[in-house]
Structure formats: C-alpha cells, structure tokens
Design a protein that fits this description.
With about 110 residues, the protein is mainly alpha-helical. The chain has one domain. It is built from 7 helices and no strands. Helix 1 packs across helix 3. The mean pLDDT is about 95.
C-alpha cells in the first residue's frame, strides 16, 4: 500500500505539480502539505481520497502529454471543461470530469 509521502512524490514527479498545487487541491496550507510529504504526518480521509483522485488525473495527463505540457494543461482553463481549470475541478470533488476529458485525449492520440 502506498504511503501519503509516496503518493505526493508521485504526483510531483517531473514537475507536473508542486506544493502550492497540492495545497490548492486539498484546500489546506502549503505548511500542511510539507508536513505530509516530508514528515509523514497523517491526513484526513477526505484529503486522502482527493489525493488519490489527483493521482489518477496526473497519471492520465502523463499518458496524454509530456510532463511540461501536462503541468500547463492542469492549470489552464480548458474548453472541454466549460472553461474551467482541471485542478479547480479536482479540488471541487469533480475529478471525474477531468478524467473523462483526459481519457478522450488519450484515446484520440492512440487512434
């Protein structure tokens, strides 16, 4: 089973996300994220669920595009998401919308 530290390391690998992004998505402070990532502090169940959703989003984004492009895509308003930013949607608990959009991109690139 993955630890929160390894989960956070995974989503930050390649510079796709940073501590500020994680704080935004989990609706907490950068200080809390640092405690989770570097000191092994525990997280609430809802935060853990949000981080697991975020991992799914980041993994799909990495399938669809290079890390640098994924970083920009996650932070930018997307027409396929009614002009919303993917990270904002994950933060709001609607990661499934982002996953659907990324799945469409992955499928389009593999055809």
């Amino acid at each position: 089973m993955a630890t929160i530290k390894s989960l956070l390391d995974h989503v930050c690998a390649g510079g796709v996300l940073n501590i500020g992004d994680l704080a935004q998505v989990t609706r907490t402070t950068r200080r809390n994220v640092v405690r989770w990532r570097y000191r092994g502090a525990t997280v609430r169940r809802d935060v853990e669920e949000r981080l697991l959703e975020l991992r799914a989003v980041v993994d799909l984004a990495r399938q669809a595009m290079p890390d640098r492009q994924a970083r920009i895509w996650l932070r930018s308003p997307q027409p396929d998401l009614d002009g919303q930013r993917p990270l904002d949607l994950v933060s709001e608990g609607t990661a499934y919308l982002v996953i659907d959009a990324l799945t469409a991109i992955v499928e389009a690139t593999t055809d």
